[in-house]
Design goal:
The structure is a homotetramer. Chain A is built from four helices and ten strands. The first copy, chain A, is of the alpha/beta class and about 160 residues long. In chain A, the strands form three sheets. In chain A, strands 4-1-5-6-7-8 form a six-stranded mixed beta sheet, sandwiched between helices. The first copy, chain A, has a two-stranded antiparallel sheet with strand order 2-3. Chain A has a two-stranded antiparallel sheet with strand order 9-10.
């Protein structure tokens, strides 16, 4: 399995000198150690950005990396705000892999994060869903072309 | 989805007056709130026992509850030591449901638990695996009749 | 003992919908429960502000509340950036009480906070130091007129 | 300042293979890093025992180390059950140092521990109380010859 890290709330940290949130390194490996994961994986950080700052070029980089990946089970950690946009770009290019985008509403380092639960579900969906591009959030999975983030509740929901 | 709680390390707590570990209430709902799960679920506590203390009668109770359950996606939280034994009892009686047994090596209340990761993966496997009885641990899923807990590493592994 | 809450990093929380830090309620009582404190106390929230936004009027309110307080052991939770300025305003008006200003570099809700350690030391200093106005940070106490926050390290140090 | 580590609930950890609590290394330095302490200290582990298993010989070792210590501000981390007994042994031999015994009801590694609060208060009491032997628990300090642990509540209280 391959994990591409792109940033998002997942990996944000608190800078105690400035009081600002910022990115340093990804916490994915630390989270997988905590979860005692024994799934063979390869983690690659593609970028560390807030998904509101993600450009079309960034999405292209993500899609190209999915394309080139030898593994056909891929997880992408991503900010929730534009997760669906990135999923659509990927879906235009890739049909024969199971790609799961996931994220978090609370940074992992803040203790009470949903990140570990989401990562666990993303791992499972990557191993068990048919080829396709999916969002894994709120314990559920969504087809990339049938969901949105509800900005009021912070939850993902079906569009129809 | 249905969740049957049977105890196990998952739900153990520390009694600060005696220094012993004990069971009080399950933390599943609290964990699902943390994970922001929006999967419709019904939680039922069947027992609160260490799986080393689980009797054949206990396993029968678990199997009967799975049988009677209207839902065909079922998660069972269970101590890891005899998780496979319980899975075998269930498998003898039920073929037409997706039943996932999961647990934890560290109690959820101890802060650095694998429980939230495991619960996330169990939720996902329950929604996406075909009918059958499975163990979800270490980020992976195992067929009930092809795995064991390695007592030295604390990890689940395939038998063959 | 009296505790006046004024905000500061101590009590900041993460708004998962906006990604911003904000103030809701103080966590002092929750922290004292965790610490199993049995010191009789009265907690009063005077304001909930970032200390960089604190006005002279705010400092006057704090000083007046210290003056009017029946207790002569007082703790003030306060943002670290202007903690010393507030201490000076209080010192001009009050000589006959032991007043301890304390704070945190990391919000209590973020899990890995220095807040609980600082609160424990503030409680102890309030009970054992002679009358005067002090800063309690980094496990130490400082006279209000002989310390500053080092903006590069985030630590308090003597001026001398 | 000197810190003598003797074990106690403070430093207990959970062995995930056996389900038992055990001692490995002390967490004092990790806790002081979290608290951003800048008090010059020297930590020395004398033993790692449950205080119910502590022998008179152990207490003698603790007292001798306090005697020989060049520092006259000393903190001893200790199980709460026999903390008072050890304090009495020390008090027979030492009059000219400020010695604070402290501990915890919940292990530091379990996330929701009172340990960090207690350690903060012990640090402050060691710097501000007159020479003598004290217990620092529940946010308070007690003279060694005037307190006991209430076994029902787990709290320390004055005797008379």
């Amino acid at each position: 399995m391959k994990i591409f890290v792109t940033g998002g709330t997942f990996d944000k940290e608190y800078n105690e000198l400035t009081g600002q949130l910022f990115f340093k390194d990804t916490h994915i490996q630390e989270m997988l150690n905590l979860g005692r994961s024994r799934v063979p994986i390869e983690i690659r950080t593609l970028m560390m950005v807030d998904s509101l700052d993600m450009t079309e070029e960034d999405r292209e980089i993500i899609a190209q990396n999915c394309l080139k990946s030898a593994e056909d089970q891929i997880i992408i950690t991503h900010g929730t705000d534009t997760m669906v946009e990135t999923a659509k770009v990927i879906a235009q290019k890739i049909k024969d892999k199971t790609i799961i985008l996931t994220g978090a509403m609370i940074p992992y380092k803040f203790g009470s994060s949903d990140g570990l639960f989401n990562l666990g579900s993303a791992f499972a969906f990557a191993q068990s869903l048919p080829k396709g591009i999916y969002i894994a959030m709120n314990g559920r999975f969504f087809n990339y072309d049938n969901c949105r983030k509800n900005k009021k509740t912070g939850e993902f929901e079906e569009i129809k």
